[in-house]
Amino acid sequence: MAISFTWLNIMSVAARLTAVRKQKGLTQQALADALGLHVTQVKRYEAGASLPSLEAIKKIAQVLRVTTDFLIFEESELAPDANLALQFQAIAGMPEPQQAVIRQLLEGMIIKYEAERWSSRIK
């Protein structure tokens, strides 16, 4: 069964969980049983009264066969901005050795940025 993700991208975690569960043809009780939870907890997740823990999100994703990113993030939160998207497209057309160098540069810059950000919080 194919899932249409296009209209799900603006929903909350609760709404995405509910929509995917229904698309998979599962009742709240069936999902609860598959997760090893009481049905009340699934109802709370779907009502937005309670957010699943990281471990619960992982189990939900496995049972529903979706990614954890799909359950947690809005589509726009994961996509690069327009300028970066254009640059990534240009990089994708380069030979693999050049792409590897660019990946290493990016990784180094990201690590440096995160280290500076965390060290400034400690002070």
UniProtKB/TrEMBL annotation:
The keyword Flavoprotein does not apply. Residues 17-71 form the HTH cro/C1-type domain. SMART domains: HTH_XRE. Pfam families: HTH_3 (PF01381). Keywords: DNA-binding. It comes from the Bacteria. NCBIfam families: phage_RstR. This is Helix-turn-helix domain-containing protein. It comes from Massilia mucilaginosa.
